[in-house]
Design goal:
alpha/beta, UDP-N-acetylmuramoyl-L-alanine:D-glutamate ligase, Protein-Tyrosine Phosphatase, Chain A, eleven-stranded mixed beta sheet, six-stranded mixed beta sheet, 17 helices
């Protein structure tokens, strides 16, 4: 239980109606989850506006309401607090309700179009190997030390985020590594969280349906660095042309890293094979089971973050050789006849380019690359033709198929992808709506030595069709496609 007055610091209050000397036992963002002696925070959203449910929340027992627009009539016993931004206030209120858990730990956020999940997962693995109690918040899963907590979003909403951080602090975690999506940043889901550092991996075409244009997407990512305190570090990938933009206005200590360019922290990719890579950094050589130049950048980021957090460099590098790639990230699946089968989460043109370039670098010569790829429904339509073109340019055969069509007609999504191809490119392509059939077709086309890549869904274990999720795992489907039939 907390007093409302103790929760409102940093909430940017405009007006108060009623007393703030009132007990708060619960906080709700959803009016259906309001409990007696509860605080309801009315947040305007893209499709639902919490202000429309203030009366419902009060009827369910809310004795306090935080909002951006004052309601006309509320009962005398209900305190109403008007703030500049309900979403931002929610983060600070939730943090205070849970006794500011991020202040008890070193929290590092990772943002970027690609590499967030891998970098966060590797940092969690590394710090466990270094015998630290550590938390992780990511797309695939959340972890409190070694306990898995299922993830529903790349970054949880502010209420769940602060509750998870409190659990981590109570479990004795000293460090937390979390993904920070562009949506989460602009929606203020990370408001109220104290960061020790932040990492920028890269930025490319994604989520333009939400952010409007590429500059809007850049500015969304940049907000994370703009808000860092002077005591934090801001690590940016100087191989990306937008690295300087990210730290242009930050108060934090800016640190650059690069594989190709000039930077404060550099690494050189010595070997890159299907079995792993060798990286030269800080005068030492690191062998890793991860594959590809993009993973070289991820590993460099992990090393520099550990260094910024005060770990011993040699001990860190020793433990880094044991790191495993996260699920669905360039994950090899058993196949037949010397065929290499790979599942990867690549769902943006840049990510797909990276994976296909990696395959091109490690292939020995005449093998074919057969790629299965689709695009999600109800999402950025502009990237669909670009995804198809990326697949065709890096592959010998391409099968365009469904990803998560959601509420859209999958045939319409395929037509959008096909629009990016000229008649010559189309000769390489098949369009098969059924994803299972597409994967089986790719396996049937493969010959000894070939590489089959199934891209887009990675770790996901479902396919969303007409708003319903059906069990579907690319890894299991690909494995099954290569098993001999009786």
């Amino acid at each position: 239980m907390k007093l409302l007055s103790d929760l409102l610091y940093d909430a940017r209050i405009l007006e108060v109606r009623g007393t703030t000397h009132v007990a708060v036992e619960h906080i709700a963002l959803d009016s259906r989850k309001v409990q007696p002696l509860g605080l309801f925070v009315a947040v305007p959203g893209a499709t639902v506006d919490g202000h429309d449910y203030i009366d419902t929340a009060i009827a369910s027992g809310a004795t306090c309401v935080v909002c951006e627009r004052m309601p006309e009539n509320t009962p005398d016993h209900v305190t109403v607090v008007q703030v500049k931004s309900s979403a931002a206030a929610l983060g600070h209120i939730a943090s205070a309700f849970h006794d500011h858990p991020s202040k008890d730990m070193k929290v590092v956020a990772v943002t970027g179009t690609n590499g967030k999940t891998t970098t966060v997962s590797l940092l969690h693995q590394l710090f466990r190997l270094l015998d630290r109690k550590v938390g992780m918040l990511g797309t695939v899963e959340n972890r409190i030390v070694d306990r898995v907590v299922p993830a529903t979003h790349t970054t949880p909403d502010a209420l769940n985020l602060q509750a998870l951080l409190r659990e981590m602090a109570d479990e004795g975690c000293t460090h937390v590594f979390m993904e920070a999506s562009s949506h989460a940043i602009v929606q203020e889901r990370i408001a109220g969280t104290s960061f020790t550092g932040a990492v920028f991996t890269n930025i490319s075409h994604d989520h333009l349906d939400y952010h409007g244009d590429f500059n809007g997407y850049i500015q969304a990512k940049k907000q994370l660095f703009d808000r860092l305190p002077a005591s934090a570090f801001a690590l940016v990938n100087a191989d990306d042309t937008h690295a300087e933009d990210m730290v242009a206005d930050t108060k934090a200590k800016a640190v650059t890293m690069a594989i190709q360019g000039v930077a404060d922290e550099r690494a050189r990719l010595v070997e890159n094979q299907i079995s792993g890579l060798v990286l030269h950094l800080d005068g030492q050589e690191l062998y890793s089971q991860l594959v590809g130049g993009f993973n070289a950048s991820n590993l460099l980021a992990v090393y520099v973050v550990a260094k910024q957090l005060g770990t011993d460099p040699i001990h860190t590098l020793t433990q880094m050789s044991l790191l495993q790639p996260p699920a669905g990230r360039f994950e090899r699946v058993p196949a037949r006849d010397g065929i290499t089968a790979i599942v990867d989460y690549a769902h943006t043109p840049d990510a797909l380019d990276n994976v296909l370039r990696t395959i091109a670098h490690v292939r020995s010569g005449g093998e074919k690359v057969i790629t299965v790829v689709g695009c999600g429904g109800d999402r950025d339509t502009a990237k669909r033709p670009v995804m198809a073109l990326s697949a065709v340019k890096g592959s010998d055969r391409v099968i365009l198929t469904s990803d998560n069509p959601r509420s859209e007609d999958p045939n319409a999504i395929l037509r959008d992808m096909e629009a990016g191809l000229d008649p010559i490119d189309r000769r390489k392509c098949l369009s098969i709506v059924d994803r299972r059939e597409a994967i089986r077709t790719a396996a049937a086309l493969a010959e000894p030595g070939d590489v089959v890549l199934v891209a887009g869904k990675g770790h996901e274990t479902y396919q969303e069709i007409h708003g319903e999720r059906h069990p579907f795992d690319d890894r299991e489907e690909l494995k099954s496609a290569f098993q001999p039939t009786a």
